[in-house]
């Protein structure tokens, strides 16, 4: 009885749309054909998508992006979590400051960084140039554009890693640490042989969640590079959005969206089944 | 080098790196806020650090390209979303936390798959369906879409908070003759108030910062802040000074809530995957 309102909502505007896309993906339909009926074409859209190089390029870009930002935000987040789990004055203020990027609209984050990394208007290229004399172009080459996007996203999301890992650090048991002190272990040994093994399940959860979130990236692609240069930073969400709402191929967009969805869910299920269970056990 | 000197050297190095890291983290925000007070003549010159502050950019977003409508709409939508998400999500969370029934964990995982799904999967059919119903560009459409986006994490989080309530308290009330609904409303709800506030604020923020649904489901009748902000820099060019002012406005809730929520937010953003203290 308590579940009914939520389930009604999830089914009504969550599951029903899902089946709507599913059915649509077997038909030929353009967004501009409002008065024409859907024409059944079977698996045509899927065949098209599977043989479409741009779709696989976008999938590859999405994965490169997700791996990059997950690793970078993990490194920064973990370092800060280790630092801010110590007790000292002003810790609360630092903790609050550090989580701000996560609560800012990603659109604002994107524009903010597009401005700050801009070759002429930007603060960062200017600083680099005055200090080293080198001119850096953050969005010119495909590799640099992808690197810049990863940097921007990691800036936005390291607080997430920070929060999960901090929660993990604070829930660790005290006894192993006391025993290690008595045995005269140094800080590195304590970190390597006590903190890391105990933190493994938490790290696995943090990395999984961030990876799943990164696969959905859209806002900063839209505001920073619009997929460019060329299609070098086009991710799946962005490609599907463009196909559907800029080129009106809503049928193909639906097919792509579903393939995308299945890949993500498949990955999540496999990860939860194997990696998490293993991390918890080991 | 003696051990002590070496240790002091290493730890000051670590602190230096951390300090640099913290500075570079805050720098972009500071720079945007600083730029928003720059006069137009120097806004595009990164080497200018000293200048006479002006409110010109804020005047621009107050009158020339007014931000009031997007601001008011976003406040209205985000508040409605926060209330609706809690109203729908909390009872569901209660059922998932307290009742034993077949397939309960599968149901919880199924709910979570909505959170894993890319929003683009839902935005296509919701656009078509709302279009058919004549609901495009209405508050109802965007509020429903955002509530759907928030429900999975609201349910998962509230479930964690409810699990922390000792069962004995509820059982005692049942013995006193309370019905299930009364126990939920009069015993459990007051006990999880801090959770409701924290999760409510998170739901508010997620609606405030959401972009894709806002971009596709709203246009003129409803105008949201993220769409407004994104309109300052398009292929047509950039309106730089006012853009930094608009970004500054869009950051305000983040700054406020970061300080309020610093403690509670941990679970909020982790779907309760890790139990804090």
List the helices and strands and how they pair.
The complex is a heterodimer of chains A (282) and B (277).
Chain A: H1 4-24, E1 27-28, E2 39-40, H2 44-50, H3 53-84, H4 91-103, H5 106-116, H6 123-132, H7 142-170, H8 175-182, H9 187-215, H10 219-225, H11 236-245, H12 250-281
Antiparallel strand pairs in A: 1-2
Helix pairs in contact in A: 2-12, 3-7, 3-9, 4-7, 5-10, 7-9, 7-10, 9-12, 11-12
Chain B: H1 3-36, H2 40-43, H3 56-64, H4 68-98, H5 104-116, H6 119-132, H7 139-163, H8 167-175, H9 180-191, H10 193-209, H11 212-217, H12 225-230, E1 233-234, E2 237-238, H13 240-261, H14 265-268
Helix pairs in contact in B: 1-13, 3-13, 4-7, 4-10, 5-7, 7-10, 8-9, 10-13
What's the gist of this structure?
Chain A is mainly alpha-helical and 282 residues long. Chain A is 74% helix and 1% strand.
Q: Taking all residues together, what is the mean pLDDT of chain A?
A: 88
Helix content of chain B: over 70%
What is the assembly state of the chains in this entry? Answer: heterodimer
Can you summarize the main beta sheet of chain A?
A: 2 strands, antiparallel
The geometry of chain B reads as globular
Identify the strand order in the major beta sheet of chain B.
1-2
CATH architecture of chain A: Orthogonal Bundle
For the biggest β-sheet of chain A, the strand order reads 1-2
What Rg of chain B, in angstroms, do the CA atoms define?
Answer: 24 Å
Using the coordinates shown, work out and report the CATH topology of chain A.
MetI-like fold
Q: What is the CATH level 1 assignment of the largest domain in chain B?
A: Mainly Alpha
Fill in the CATH topology of the largest domain in chain B. MetI-like fold
The overall number of domains of chain B is 2
What is the percent of helical residues of chain A? Answer: over 70%
Beta-strand residue fraction of chain B: under 5%
Task: State the major sheet of chain B.
Answer: 2 strands, antiparallel
CATH superfamily of chain A: MetI-like
Q: Judging by the overall fold, what is the CATH architecture of the largest domain in chain B?
A: Orthogonal Bundle
């Amino acid at each position: 009885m308590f579940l009914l309102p939520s389930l009604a909502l999830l089914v009504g505007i969550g599951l029903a749309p899902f089946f709507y896309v599913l059915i649509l993906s077997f038909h030929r339909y353009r967004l501009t054909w409002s008065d024409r009926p859907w024409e059944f074409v079977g698996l045509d859209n899927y065949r098209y998508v599977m043989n479409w190089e741009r779709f696989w390029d976008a999938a590859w870009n999405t994965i490169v992006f997700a791996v990059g930002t997950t690793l970078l935000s993990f490194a920064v987040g973990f370092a800060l979590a280790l630092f801010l789990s110590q007790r000292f004055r002003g810790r609360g203020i630092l903790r609050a400051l550090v989580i701000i990027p996560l609560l800012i609209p990603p659109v604002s984050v994107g524009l903010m960084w597009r401005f700050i990394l801009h070759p002429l208007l930007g603060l960062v290229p200017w600083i680099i140039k005055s200090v080293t004399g080198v001119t850096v172009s953050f969005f010119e080459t495909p590799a640099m554009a992808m690197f810049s996007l990863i940097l921007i996203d990691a800036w936005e999301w390291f607080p997430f890693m920070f929060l999960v890992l901090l929660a993990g650090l604070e829930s660790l048991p005290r006894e192993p640490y006391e025993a290690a002190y008595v045995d005269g272990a140094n800080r590195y040994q304590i970190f390597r042989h006590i903190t890391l093994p105990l933190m493994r399940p938490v790290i696995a959860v943090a990395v999984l969640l961030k990876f799943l979130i990164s696969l959905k990236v859209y806002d900063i692609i839209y505001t920073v590079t619009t997929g460019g240069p060329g299609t070098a930073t086009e991710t799946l969400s962005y490609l599907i959005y463009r196909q559907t709402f800029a080129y009106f191929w809503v049928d193909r967009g639906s097919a792509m969206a579903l393939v995308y969805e299945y890949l993500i869910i498949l990955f999540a299920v496999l990860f939860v089944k194997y990696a998490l269970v293993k991390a918890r056990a080991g | 080098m003696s051990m002590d000197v070496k240790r002091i050297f290493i730890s000051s190095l670590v602190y230096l790196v951390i300090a640099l890291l913290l500075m570079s983290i805050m720098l972009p925000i500071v720079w945007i806020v600083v730029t928003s007070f720059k006069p137009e003549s120097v806004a595009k010159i990164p080497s200018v650090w000293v200048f006479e502050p002006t409110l010109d950019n804020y005047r621009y977003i107050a009158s020339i390209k007014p931000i009031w409508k997007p601001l008011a709409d976003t406040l209205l939508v985000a508040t409605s979303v926060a209330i609706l998400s809690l109203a729908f999500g909390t009872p569901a969370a209660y059922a998932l936390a307290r009742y034993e029934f077949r397939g309960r964990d599968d149901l919880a995982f199924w709910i979570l798959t909505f959170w894993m799904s890319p929003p683009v999967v839902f935005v296509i059919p919701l656009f078509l369906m709302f279009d058919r119903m004549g609901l495009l560009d209405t508050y109802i459409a965007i509020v429903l879409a955002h509530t759907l986006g928030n429900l999975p994490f609201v349910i998962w989080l509230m479930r964690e908070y409810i699990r922390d309530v000792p069962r004995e308290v509820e059982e005692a009330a049942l013995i006193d003759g309370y019905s299930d609904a009364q126990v939920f409303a009069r015993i459990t709800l007051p006990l999880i108030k801090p959770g409701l506030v924290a999760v409510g604020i998170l739901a508010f923020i997620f609606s405030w910062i959401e972009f894709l649904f806002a971009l596709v489901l709203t246009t003129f009748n409803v105008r949201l802040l993220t769409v407004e902000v994104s309109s300052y820099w398009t292929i047509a060019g950039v309106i730089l000074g006012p853009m930094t002012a608009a970004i500054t406005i869009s950051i305000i809730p983040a700054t406020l809530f970061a300080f309020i929520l610093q403690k509670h937010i941990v679970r909020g953003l982790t779907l309760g995957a890790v139990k804090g203290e």
